[in-house]
Amino acid sequence: MFGNTTPIDRETLLAEANKIIREHEDFIHGMEATDVEQKGDVLVFRGEYFLDEDGIPTPKTTAVFNMFKHLAEVLSEKYHLAK
């Protein structure tokens, strides 16, 4: 199911994901992956989406969505969550 990926525990994966976020040119202060889930072969990252007081997405929401998508693409090729 996972091809040639390496098993990794959740905490280590989130640490690596957040390092990638902080070093990325599109980093926004407060952007952080706080959870990750395995969906088939894809790692799905979650965190703050910068919604306004009414729960409506802000322009930062798109940046966060794109960052989490980037993490999924990069890290799903390398890792899968260890059981």
UniProtKB/TrEMBL annotation:
Pfam family, one: DUF2498
Stored InterPro entries: DUF2498, YciN_sf
Official protein name in the record: Uncharacterized protein DUF2498
Record organism: Enterobacillus tribolii
